[in-house]
Amino acid sequence: MILSSWMVVLPDQSEEANAKIKTIYIYNFTKYIEWPASYKEGNFVVGVLGTNTPLVTELNKMASSKTVGTQKFEIKSVFTPADCAKCHIVYILSDNSSQLNGVLGKLKGKSALIVTDKSGLATKGSGINFFVDGNKQKIELNRSNIEKYKLKVASTLVDMAVQVK
Amino acid sequence: MLKTKRTIIFGLLLFLAVSLNAQQSRVTAAYTFLQQGKLDSAKATIDVAILHSETQSDGQAWYVRGFIYKTIYNQSEKSNKQSSSRIEGLISFKKSLTIDTTQENVTENIKNIKYLATTLYNDAAASLDTIDYKIAVNNFDIFREYYLLVDPSAENFKQKEIDFANAMATVYTRIYEADRKGKTDFLNYAKASYNKALSFDPNNINANYNMGILYYNQAVNLINQSDYDLDIVALNDVQDNSINLFKQSLPFMEKAYALDPNKKETLLGLSGIYFSLNEKEKSNEFKQKLEQIGK
Q1: How far, CA to CA in Å, does B170 sit from each of A120, B122, B248?
Q2: Nearest to A27 among B228, B271, B277 (CB)
Q3: Residues of A with Cβ-Cβ distance to B213 under 8 angstroms
Q4: Residues 6 or more apart in contact with residue B216 via CB below 8 angstroms
């Protein structure tokens, strides 16, 4: 009798795990940052500029069970800076980093948190930037870039991030 | 022809064993019951005989006992993977082998031990599932003990050990996968089994790949099972633990890749590990190789 020892187990999706980490970060941002009263009505809109299916899927999973105060999450894929104007959080994916300036222009006078995913962008206008340090996903935070959009950031979040000016 | 020869040899051996004393008559009587198909009487008679001081050191008596129990196994317990008669048969042939060193008896005892041990191996293989796996382990252990007793230099035994360890690891993985939170012990059993296979053959591609996957999936699950409410400090701990697991996965997956650079699952695994370690360039290298193979 021959023993059957070969089992083809495919690896689980690493993109999904990375998306989960970023989603947990983004949900944390909503707990440690306060938007002005006029932004506390209607849905809490998170716009993702660019294409990252696992991330949008994961954000939608989070949105189905979590809220920001009484606001329900609304996850939107956006493709141009103009689409970002009504977002509470705009997450610019690394491949779309060149659109940061356009987004900054469209969000003047608004209250939005701009999140980016490319080295150096926290010094170029984004409030929070994802970066990798020692294989780990971390965040750098530019407090003035957050507060210029009339957002209040808790010191707890500031302490947990690498601060950038 | 072979069967006739065996019967003659057996008859001859029995004849030599027969003497005038009562205990040896019991051995003869047991054999007669066996020939008449009265297996219960044969068993009862030989069990009394081997307890007596005159025959407990008689290799022939133990051989007859082994033969009776082997017959009981063949006739009524063959479908029982935990047959006690098979074990009694093995114990008896082993005892006979130890006491009786005449060439003919040694040959017969070895032949019978090999036969019964092989049935244990087959039953071990047939028990490799999430329900009967303990029977598989037990039967394989007994098979190993007896088979190596009569054939210590068995050429293919190492391969049997590797195949069995890999197969057991597969069973343990299935049990774990069915209940990842409740059956975490089985993840460790699976790793131990793959380690055993690798101790016999460090270049075993299946064990290397599957071990890599165990660590890899454990790392991914650690992240995916995290709650959205996790604060950033706790998330950092989860990341540290998962990175540690990805790093443990890497050498096994790299070895599997070195052994077979064109295996798609390995390329997918390496791409995933490097992606998770945020080494995107290396991840893309393996992704590209995977795409080239797919063309």
Answers
A1: 47, 18, 19
A2: B228
A3: 9-11
A4: A11, A12, B245, B246, B249, B253, B269, B272, B273
Per-residue pLDDT reduced to its tens digit, B11-40: 545 554 554 466 678 899 999 999 999 999
* pLDDT single digits (tens) A74-100: 999 999 999 998 899 999 999 999 999
Task: Tally DSSP H helices, then E strands, for chain B.
Answer: 13, 0
Q: List Cα–Cα distances, A43 to A50, A98, B176, B293, in angstroms.
A: 21, 28, 41, 46
CA separation for the pair B176, B187 (Å, rounded): 6
Phi-psi category of A134—alpha, beta or left, where left has phi over 0 and alpha has psi -120 to 50? left
Q: Which residues of B12-37 are buried (b: 16+ CB within 10 A; e: fewer)?
A: ebbeebeeeeebbebbbbbbebbeee
Mutate to test the interface with A, among B180, B216, B218, B220 (most CBs of A within 10 A): B220
User: CB contact, 8 Å: B121 with chain A?
Assistant: yes
Contact A30, A154 (CB under 8 A): no
**Which neighbouring-strand residues pair with A116?**
A129
CATH of B202-295, one of 1.10.600, 3.40.1000, 3.30.2310, 1.25.40: 1.25.40
CB-CB contact of B276 with A18 (8 Å): yes
Q: For chain A, give the percent of residues with pLDDT over 70.
A: 93
Residue B65: CA count within 13 A, CB half-sphere = 29
Residues B201, B197: Cα–Cα separation, whole Å: 6
Question: Residue B154: exposed, middle, or buried by beta-carbon count in 10 A (0-12, 13-18, 19+)?
Answer: middle
Range 271-290 of B in CB contact (< 8 A) with A = 271-273, 275-279
Start-to-end C-alpha separation, chain B: 59
Q: Domain residues of chain A, as ranges?
A: 14-163
First to last CA, chain A: 69
Q: Let me know: does B65 contact B91? Beta carbons within 8 Å.
A: no
Which CATH number is associated with domain A14-163?
3.40.50.2300
Helix (H) or strand (E) holding A122: none
| Interacting residues of B4 by C-beta distance below 8 A, sequence separation 6+ | none
Question: Is residue B294 packed enough to be buried (19+ CB in 10 Å), middle (13-18) or exposed (0-12)?
Answer: exposed
